[in-house]
Write a structure and sequence with these properties.
- The complex is a heterodimer of chains A (about 120) and B (about 650).
- Chain A contains five helices and five strands.
- Chain A is α/β, with parallel strands linked by helices and about 120 residues long.
- The model of chain A has no long low-confidence stretch (mean pLDDT about 90).
- Chain B is globular.
- Chains A and B meet through helix 4, strand 5 and helix 5 of A and helix 6 of B.
Chain lengths: ~120, ~650
């Protein structure tokens, strides 16, 4: 049972790549956001089943966005997209309520595995 | 653990942190008793035990770690709903916290944990059974194998462990240790010892819900049900994790711990700056006479104003850094009230308000004992028994409110109860019988003045008064302590309705406003808070009473004291009547509700002064509260009015 996903990343290239991977595997990308602030607003609008969240972004970073979203929806399922060397930030994000993480450069099957597990399908 | 890595210089931080956790434990446990279903309290308590376990283990305090571990286990059972919150549970947990506290005290004193026999509390914790509870949890090891190309293994392991904990499964131990896991010092797999009622397959499923996990295997999953005997308990002892497990649950805040002494010396330095500023102002004044220097004078004046602003800000900032919320003190009181109420069989609703109000930390220490005193009195004597309250038509549950708020440059703390109140008539009787006042005098006194008798030393110790007024056990001590830190105590009471004590405290001890007076060649500073009025007394209006020169002040006799002689423990310097000057410049001061007039040669004015302590090598300095440096570089001694008046009474009144 695939789901509705929102992609959050400040790089359009990354968003495009993730979108390709996800749609090819039957998921529907219902929203895209390029910073944390936008992500919080769009989450409210679209209420996706899952969010992929970049960590370093302008305006509002990913960790703050996780906190904000979880404040509004404690059940929100969020996967962090991390670059190598961001260990401490990923831990922060997990403490803030992120469910899992994937590490760039993305491998399609890893992305799909994480999404599948978090969605429980 | 301890043999290769010296942990001794973490001892200070460990003690501080453990103390904080113990305080918040007491607070939260009492709160939990009131709201047994509040998950926030349960989580907070669990985290505190968990942190203490981890850090005491790291410090090598095995007994303490073991105790915290058992407390944490019990809390975990509460968290999972296996044990329900009851008074007996809270009692046991508080008992455990008491042990932690006493162990910490020993550690603070001796640097090592005490060698106590803890069997009793250990087994009480291990064997605690809630109502109708059947313990079916067991421990077993899981091996978690990560996917071969898994990146950020450390975070992955962290995620697995936090996922387990979020699902209510206790992680008892890991191989390698947690810090090694987080530091990625391991291969493709690691082992976790879990404690749970869930079967291994269920637990494996939870772990596998994390991405990039290849396989989860349970070891020794058989027969774990009957393992709950001593053998297993022994093993459990050995598995208390010696590593910094607290990392998992504590959120790091961006704060720096600074030694208080460092703040003290910073404030001292700012004090020096304030003095220099005053000196600069003094120089500017003197430059007035030199017309040709007028330009320089203006520049100097501008610069000095700027320095003044900066030092003021600096002073404020450092003062703020020394401030701690009153919660530091208040938080331990719910426990105190709970225990006292249980002992006396009274029902008390204890309310704390304004605990976020901040106060200088040295003051915080000073007010703890007086507050305990007032609260104890409120429970013991203020609040009536349940039956008495019902018969009076009051709600059966008494109420004690501890409130704090800031008012201009002071902090006010109120201890208020809705108990029986003070009986003015009985206090009057007692005061007359003790010979403190005559019946005529007392009939002219205001209610407030009469109530103030409870602060009179020895007034309280009589059982009669304690019975009827319900107050006064060591009230003089309370008042003295508060006045020593330049504070004031006031009481308001209504018979049958309740009593309220108001403690007014300065925000800081280091800088005060003072009245500067000259006596001979010396300049003395009298704290403005002690000054009632400045009077010009004519010689013809003075009288000798019991060989003390007195005058009338607002219809009362006022002893006139020569400051310099008094500091020397003598009463007067003059021998004959003729030596008394025609006009006496008198500063009327008050301390512990007694008034006195200090005769000086000249009143110079009012100024902000920085208190410097006199140091311990000085001899008898009673009567003096310290010294300060004046604008011209001279030194002025600060008068401590309370002890000065004490000295006067000793000099033979």
């Amino acid at each position: 049972m695939p789901g509705r996903i929102m992609i959050v990343d400040d790089a359009a290239f990354m968003r495009m790549m993730l979108k390709d991977i996800l749609t090819k595997n039957g998921y529907e990308v219902v929203a895209e956001a390029s910073n944390g602030h936008e992500a919080v607003l769009k989450y409210e609008e679209t209420r996706p089943d899952l969010v992929t969240m970049d960590i370093t972004m302008p305006e509002m970073d990913g960790i703050t966005a996780v906190k904000e979203i979880r404040k509004k929806d404690p059940q929100a399922k969020i996967i962090m997209c991390s670059a190598m060397g961001q260990q401490a930030m990923v831990v922060d994000a997990i403490q803030a309520g992120a469910r899992d993480f994937i590490v760039k450069p993305f491998k399609p099957d890893r992305v799909v595995e994480a999404v599948k597990k978090v969605l429980g399908n | 653990m301890g043999d290769t890595f010296d942990v001794s210089h973490y001892l200070g931080v460990f003690i501080e942190e453990a103390k904080e956790h113990i305080e918040s434990l007491e607070e939260n446990l009492v709160k939990l008793e009131k709201e047994p279903d509040n998950q926030d309290f349960i989580q907070a308590i669990f985290r505190s035990f968990h942190t203490i376990k981890g850090s005491s283990g790291s410090m090598g305090f095995q007994q303490m770690a073991e105790l915290a571990h058992l407390l944490e286990n019990l809390l975990d059972r509460v968290r999972r709903g296996e044990v329900s919150v009851s008074s007996s549970l809270i009692d046991l947990l508080l008992q455990g916290v008491d042990f932690l506290k006493r162990m910490l005290e020993e550690i603070t004193k001796k640097g090592q944990e005490p060698d106590w026999n803890m069997e009793e509390i250990f087994s009480a914790l291990q064997n605690f059974r809630g109502e109708g509870e059947k313990d079916d949890s067991g421990e077993y090891w899981l091996t978690v194998k990560l996917a071969p190309d898994c990146s950020m293994k450390g975070v992955r392991a962290y995620l697995v462990i936090s996922r387990l904990q979020d699902s209510g499964i206790e992680v008892v131990n890991t191989v390698p240790s947690l810090s090694d896991l987080e530091g990625e010092n391991f291969g493709q797999s690691f082992d976790v010892l879990v404690r749970t009622a869930l079967p291994p397959e269920e637990v494996a499923k939870i772990v596998e819900s994390v991405a990039e996990i290849e396989r989860v295997e349970a070891k020794g999953g058989e027969g774990e049900e009957e393992e709950r005997d001593q053998i297993e308990e022994k093993e459990e002892k050995n598995t208390v994790s010696p590593t910094g497990e607290q990392k998992i649950t504590t959120n790091l805040k961006k704060t720096v711990r600074v030694d208080v002494e460092r703040l003290d010396s910073l404030l001292n330095l700012v004090g020096e700056l304030v003095i220099d500023r005053t000196r600069l102002e003094d120089i500017i004044q003197r430059l007035k006479d030199y017309q040709e220097l007028i330009q320089f004078r203006e520049i100097l004046s501008d610069t000095t104003t700027h320095i003044g602003r900066i030092t003021n800000d600096l002073q404020m900032e450092i003062m703020k850094a020394r401030m701690l919320p009153l919660a530091e003190v208040f938080n331990r009181f719910p426990r105190l009230i709970r225990d006292l109420a249980r002992q006396s069989g009274k029902e008390i609703n204890f309310i704390i308000e304004g605990e976020e109000t901040e106060l200088d930390r040295s003051l915080l220490e000073e007010i703890t004992d007086p507050l305990i005193h007032l609260l104890r009195n409120a429970v013991d004597h203020g609040i009536e028994s349940r039956e008495e309250r019902i018969s009076k038509g009051k709600p059966p549950q008494g109420e004690i409110v501890l409130r704090a708020y800031q008012e201009e440059n002071s902090v006010v703390i109120v201890v208020e109860d809705d108990g029986r109140g003070l009986d003015i008539e009985k206090i009057k009787d007692k005061a007359v019988r003790m010979g403190l006042v005559t019946p005529e005098e007392v009939s002219k006194m205001s209610e407030q003045e009469i109530v103030d008798f409870i602060f009179y030393p020895g007034f309280s110790t009589s059982d009669e008064v304690t019975e009827v007024s319900g107050r006064g056990v060591g009230m003089d001590v309370v008042k003295r302590n508060i006045e020593r830190v330049n504070g004031q105590v006031r009481v308001e009471s209504q018979l049958g309705v309740g009593t309220a004590f108001y403690l007014r405290l300065p925000l800081t001890l280091a800088i005060i406003r003072a009245l500067l007076v000259r006596v001979g060649e010396s300049i003395y500073s009298i704290p403005l808070s002690d000054v009632v009025e400045i009077e010009k007394v004519e010689k013809e209006n003075t009288y000798w009473v019991n060989r003390v020169l007195t005058t009338l002040f607002r219809g009362k006799t006022l002893p006139l004291l020569w400051l310099e002689a008094l500091l020397d423990s003598r009463k007067y310097d003059f021998i004959s009547e003729d030596e008394i000057p025609e006009v006496l410049y008198t500063v009327v001061v008050s301390a512990s509700s007694s008034l006195a007039g200090l005769v000086v040669d000249e009143v110079l004015g009012e100024q902000e002064i920085v208190i410097k302590s006199l140091g311990s090598y000085m001899g008898d300095v009673r009567g003096l509260g310290g010294a300060t440096i004046l604008g011209d570089g001279g030194i002025s001694l600060i008068i401590d009015v309370a002890s000065l008046l004490w000295k006067f009474s000793r000099a033979g009144g």
